[in-house]
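Entry 14. Structure prediction run on the chain below.
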Amino acid sequence: MVELPIARPDASVHSIDHYALYVPSIPEAERFFSAFGLDVSHCGQHAQELELRAADGWRWARVLPSSSKSLAYLSFGCFDGDLEPIRCQVAAAGARLVAPHPSVLPEENVVGFWFNDPDGNLVQVKPGPKTSPQGKTSTLLPIGTPDARGSHPRSAAKIVRPQRLSHVLLFSPNVLRALDFYGKALGLRLSDRSLDVIAFTHAPHGSDHHLVAFAKSTARGWHHAAWDVPNVNTVGLGASQMAAAGYTEGWGTGRHVLGSNYFHYVQDPWGSFCEYSADIDFVSAGYEWPAGDFAPEDSLYLWGPSLPGNFIHNTEAPADVAGVVPEG
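Output returned:
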């Protein structure tokens, strides 16, 4: 077993600001993300790009046209005073600063910096408001009493609209290397892992159990973005909402072990996923989370349907090569 030192740099990012995803069909992306319950708007040259917002109004994602699906870049937010220390940490961790992504407008890139992580992903760090939560954001399900129903008629169900982005998961050919780099460079801390197969990291300023996670594959790749909803009932309603729109492939509904969140993953048109997530564990600012190393068969889900084969397939890897995710 390879044991990693616990990285404790001087500064850290506090949130994911947004991510940008390349896809081969903007119209299909608009249909999928709108059905998922996100606010989708057109922008960019000839309105050929999309912006995705959750119910909180924050721009959590950009969707850009390309010949295939992949991560364009991942943007993190930090406090003003942490920007320069993080820049030094990134350099000390061995990364070279690079030019901004060409789609980013000059007025959006006045401050901050860009670099490539060891897997080649383009990453931005910039000062900005903390968008990660300050505490648990889930709400308890109503409990039925003799004079109050705990549920409601099917016809009264509302459209599920995610409240915010919770986390992202990236495929990596070297999970332990990614874990070490993001700890030393950006100050992210290990929450839990399973061998060198999957690892979850949180931000020390108060964060969900995982802000960024890494899963083993033969190549880098985009696996999923998770979107927070109020409770397990909303997770189920979201699954039904997507099935009614024709998106029936995915995995769930179930409950994870690492993070404890209820989940339902919906496969997008390009082989990656969007997750409805509720009641994820929260790591308070300053709290030393007891990170564990769990056996693969005991780390993925507490209950739910069996893991489908398409869930571990990295569509950005060479043909017919799947990712490796703990079974259980």
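Residues 24 and 223 are 16 Å apart (CA to CA).
Filed with the rest of this week's runs.
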